[in-house]
C-alpha cells in the first residue's frame, strides 16, 4: 500500500464562537491547496480512495483533491479526527481488506499525521517530522503484518516546494 | 543550521577493472542531476557551502550544483566517503564553528545519508527513509547541543517529484 498523509490547508483561526470542527479553509488556504493538488496531478499522482477527517477544513481539502481529479471518491473516517489514534485506525484499515496495490490518501491533522508517520517508520522520537498545512508525507506499507515500525518513507514535502 | 543531504546522481556500475571511487556519473545521471539542480535553483534554494564525498560520482554531483549557481563554493570531506561515520563528521562540523544561519549541502552516499538523517531525528530503526540517487533530505539542526535525535526533518524527495 502506498499511503499519502496530507494535512488540511490553511484554515480560519479558532474563536470562542467558532467550534474547532467548523473552521473552514481561508481563501488563501483554498487557493494554495488547489495549487498543490494541480501539481500532484501533473506529477502523475492518483489515489484510489481519499479518507478524510470529518472536520470541515479536512473535508474541504479532500473535496479540492477530488475536484482536481486526483481521486474519484472520498469518505470520512472518525479515526482521522484530531482525537483519533493510530491503533484504532490501523485496525479499521485492516478490516477493509484493500488490495495490496491500493494508493490511499488520508487527509487530517497535526500532530497526528506526523506522529503516525514516525510510528510507521519506527521512530520513537515523535515530533521530528515537520508537516506543514497542505504538506504531504508518502509511505510504503508492507504487504503483510503490522505496518508499525516496518514502513518506508519516500516523501515529505511542504507545499512551498510544490507550488 | 539547515542541512541538505543530497545523494549523488546515477553512476556507472562497479566492475572488476573500475574501482568504486572512480565511478563517474552516466550521461543520464548528469542530465537528471542538472534537472534537479535547475529546479532547486528555481525553488529559491541556495547553499553557503557544499561539502562532498571525495569519490568521483559525488564530486561530479557537487560540481553540477555549483555550475547551477546553488553555491559558490564546495570542498571535499573524507568523512563523507562511504566508510565515513556520523560521529566523526559531527565532531569535524562542530570544529568549523559555522554560523547558526548557515545553509549547508552535503553530497554523499547511501546507506550513510539516510541513516544519518534517521539518527539526527532520533529514529532507532534505520533504513526506513528512501533516498534515491539525486534525491534530497532537508533537516534543521538545533542551534546548540548535539543534533543527534534533536533535529527536525522538513523535506525528503526523490528526483522524480522535482523534474
From TrEMBL, chains A, B:
Domain of life: Bacteria
SUPFAM superfamilies tied to this protein: Phosphoglycerate mutase-like
InterPro entries: His_Pase_superF_clade-1, His_PPase_superfam, SixA
Pfam families: His_Phos_1
UniProt GO MF annotations: protein histidine phosphatase activity
Gene3D superfamilies recorded: Phosphoglycerate mutase-like (3.40.50.1240)
A GO CC term assigned to this protein in UniProt: cytoplasm
NCBIfam families in alphabetical order: sixA
The protein's name in its UniProt record: Phosphohistidine phosphatase SixA
Taxonomic placement: Bacteria, Bacillati, Cyanobacteriota, Cyanophyceae, Chroococcidiopsidales
